Protein: Protein-glutamate O-methyltransferase family protein
Amino acid sequence: MRSWRRPARENGGAEVPDPQLPPPIGIDRPGSFSRSVFHERHPVLVANLLADFPYPPHVAEALEALLAESLAGDVPARTPGGPEIHTWHLEVEAHAGRPWESLPFLWAESYFYRRLLRAVEYHHYDSPWCGVDPFAPQKHAQLDGPELRADLDAYAALRGAGAADRRRALLLAALWGNQADLGFRTNNPGADTSAGDVLVDDSEALWELAEAPGDAPVIVVADNAGREITADLALVDHLLETAAGPVELHLKPHPYFVSDATGQDVVATLAALDRDPHQEVRDLARRLRDAVRMGWLRLRTHGAYVHPTDYRTLPADLAAEFAAAKLVILKGDLNYRRLVGDLQWDPATPFAEAAGHFPGPVAALRTAKSDLAVGIDPARLAKLDAEAPDWRLTGTRAVIQVHA
Structure:
């Protein structure tokens, strides 16, 4: 197994670059997408939080101070509070004193959101803001929005579709549902959300693995709440019908990036489906609840899903779960970055080379919303770069990639 760095527990938290792998994507290059996340997206994000909640002055000041530090400061030595504190202590110890702009993009973005939760006192048990999801208003707005209404109308219309057409529609809905990422839309509210080009389509390999005989689980690692988790739940419902074993839906243990899905978001989504005028949609919610009660659908989480590291440093227990699964389906851009490593890959690098470290069969459903890309046919890549140089960032290209 190749790794960009050894696990922190083995080296006291210090990064050890692997010379076999490309360097990490950073946030220091002017004009880069990663830099724009900090200089364009995060200021809008903080302004939205201050508009959505009547935070007291000290919370507002903490948010503004975090924003200023992330744009022109250094990483302080203190460890942010909350769960997984030992991991965060080692990670911060390894980066303390470094200018933010010198940090790897994935690490810096994860650290920013961890510090944001501290600023809004999400983990402060003696604060009235403890447990208040700072992104809940944006998530709930999407559950009540016209785009989800159209999605559910389309789902209800599938009742007369043939089995193959229905299966294809559910998979594509889960794939393109990742366009609803609220972080992506924070400073890009007019983003195109129509289905675009699927650059790599390993869907038949995905179904062959997911529907193979045996009682090992299929694991779906969720990404975002709102429209995306709704589409994911419809796909999970289909897998419960066609896969021989149970299905696990893995969620974040607490809010992470703007719209990352938690258990609370699943509950809110099922409640929204219960209110839908279509009987088919209400039946979907009922079947999912019954599946949870019977143990066929297992809702799971793990602290590793909110670590600032990629999947090359998986904790042993989660790695063992992945290895025992029939298939792990990773949803979205963030899970993709963590799977292949948020590195400066040549986009023509085979997916198997970048994802070969994963402990079991894995499928990635990802719409492209960052500079990272792997597994793209060189001829297709040349055409994309010539005709749409920003194709990696717009959310209108997607991949279904499988490595077994």
